[in-house]
Design a protein that fits this description.
alpha/beta; Aspartate Aminotransferase, domain 1; Aspartate Aminotransferase, domain 2; 2 domains; 7-stranded mixed beta sheet; 4-stranded antiparallel beta sheet; 19 helices; 13% strand; disordered N terminus
């Protein structure tokens, strides 16, 4: 009897192929036993023929599962992503109860997902120009009804022209694009970068991605070579970085932001963390910078960026500049790492020429807020061509980013210009969204300032506030009894009382002995803010 596995990899596959000449049940039993299928045969389950060559078992009793919690990838088990952790799961359970009419006993009538920067879930309206263009990309026959579009549906001429141009670039949004993105879209991104920074950008160095998260995943896969590989990560940080490093079995090297100084980035803090990691035998290869910060909202000053680049040059660190909140700046000014690096290279020729910088951007944040369309890009500067080839290989394994998301990136970096038909509406919507975010951030900050035991710096940018909370010993003991950290206990009580879901500070990392939580300020209205204040007052009284 001939026996083989139907598997491209030839590893651990339980599908078995039997030859047409097989007739001996004993030889079949022997062969299957060799392939670890004794359980099937001991149960005396008949083999059913499902094709000329392939047989399967007919289950007459429950089979033992292949996977259990003890044998799944241990790095997946280890990874944590608090933004969508226990509180988020509970909040969705409440949402389902309310939707089904079974939540009448809950002390709130809606759930506010302040745990994640998801603007349109919290009623931020999409930009009209963007969505009109996308509608034509999704259904090109609409372009045959130009009179209807212009005279009955409120479309403008520039909407139609942009849709036609994008279709020329991609052919169809239902087709794969080139792995790094269509050339025309990459050229639009390069023009945006040049206009923003005052320095040239090469379309060949730009990679379209499924949001910035996909770009981070790509780059960390290429950078990390095992447990001894270290990446410097700001604390507090967006848990994408620590989770991905866990999955890769690499080492997170934390450096702490200075809360007392508006969550600033200190070169001395980075140097201290780097020295400690090196002494422990860690090969520190990269540093992640989130600018403006998540969860803190802080923007790096020009001089802070210079310090980071100078350190990266001397220590040979890849800089991962996560700049997805670059249009969400309320205090100060956004400076891109690319612009500062090019300035430094111009000022001191030769010294910074081999600095490796990756800059990431996304359609999910800013005033665009199109999280669900999964669009983003990253730009490479200063990388060895052989490494670039490996990055290209990695992204090509996933074929390409969602093409509709790639088109949305083009719209983000190339919106209507003054004098074009859609400009006035676009500007009105853009300015309105920004003003609304700033207004809600200010209102929430004011509420936190009035709360007992809460300290919160003014909103600087991004979509979040990250207040410090001081809890009583009674509350800390209650949290311990409940099997939770104090900040998680507080956040769960908040959710149960108000329907507002936030993220405990432990999910982002925090200095020992401090407690925080992160909340977005995306939700409309002020009633929920008043609800938070009322909850906090009651909580502090109960655990005084």
């Amino acid at each position: 009897m001939a026996l083989s596995r139907v598997s491209a990899s030839g590893a651990c596959n339980r599908f078995t192929t039997l030859s047409r000449s097989s007739s001996s049940s004993s030889s079949t039993t022997s062969a299957l036993t060799r392939f670890g299928l004794e359980t099937v045969l001991l149960a005396k389950q008949p083999l059913l023929r499902s094709s000329p060559l392939t047989y399967r078992t007919m289950s007459t009793s429950p089979r033992l599962r292949s996977l259990n919690i003890d044998n799944v990838n241990p790095h997946v088990r280890k990874a944590e992503y608090a933004v969508r952790g226990e509180l988020a799961v509970r909040s969705e359970e409440y949402r389902a109860q309310l939707a089904s009419g079974k939540g009448k006993d809950l002390p709130f009538d809606n759930v506010i997902s302040a745990n994640i920067g998801n603007p349109q879930q919290l009623d931020q309206k999409p930009i009209t120009f963007f969505r009109q263009v996308l509608s034509l990309l999704e259904y090109p026959p609409l372009l045959e009804k130009e009179d209807v579009l212009l005279n009955q549906l409120g479309y403008k001429k520039d909407v139609i022209e942009r849709a036609k141009w994008l279709l020329e670039q991609v052919g169809s949004v239902g087709a794969y694009s080139a792995s790094t993105g269509p050339q025309g879209i990459k050229e639009s991104i390069a023009k945006f970068i040049e206009k923003r920074d005052g320095h040239p950008a090469d379309p060949a160095s730009i990679y379209l991605s499924a949001g910035a998260s996909s770009g981070v995943n790509t780059l960390l896969h290429v950078i990390c070579a095992g447990p001894k590989t270290g990446v410097l990560v700001p604390i507090p940080q967006y848990p994408l970085y620590t989770a991905t490093l866990s999955l890769l079995d690499a080492t997170c090297v934390p450096y702490y932001l200075d809360e007392a100084n508006a969550w600033s980035t200190s070169a001395s803090s980075i140097t201290s963390a780097l020295t400690t990691a090196k002494e422990a035998g860690t090969d520190v290869r990269a540093i992640a910078i989130i600018n403006p910060g998540n969860p803190t909202g802080a923007s790096l000053s020009y001089s802070d960026i210079e310090s980071v680049i100078d350190l990266a040059a001397s220590e040979h660190l890849v800089i991962l500049a996560d700049e997805v909140y670059q249009t969400n700046v309320f205090i100060g000014k956004f400076h891109s790492f690319k612009a500062v690096l090019r300035d430094m290279q111009k000022k001191t020729p030769g010294k910074y020429d081999t600095v490796e910088l990756v800059s990431l951007h996304s359609v999910s944040k800013g005033i665009v807020g199109e999280c669900g369309h999964r669009g983003g890009y990253f730009e490479l500067c200063g990388f060895d061509p052989e490494v670039v080839a490996q990055i290209y290989k990695f992204v090509s394994i996933s074929l390409c980013a969602p093409v509709i998301g790639q088109c949305l990136v083009e719209l983000m970096v190339n919106p209507p210009n003054e004098g074009e038909p859609s400009y006035d509406l676009y500007k009105s919507e853009r300015d309105g969204i920004f003003a609304g975010l700033q207004s809600r951030a200010t209102a929430l900050h004011k509420a936190f300032q009035a709360m007992e035991g809460v300290e919160c710096g003014p909103p600087q940018g991004s979509m979040y506030l990250f207040p410090t909370i001081t809890l009583s010993q009674k509350a800390i003991e209650a949290a311990k009894k409940d099997g939770k950290t104090p900040d998680a206990f507080y956040a769960m009580k908040m959710l149960e009382a108000t329907g507002v879901c936030v993220v405990p500070g432990a999910g982002f990392g925090q200095k020992e002995g401090t407690l925080h939580f992160r909340t977005t300020f995306l939700a409309p209205g002020t009633e929920w803010v008043e609800g938070l204040a009322k909850f906090h007052e009651g909580f502090m009284a109960e655990y005084r």
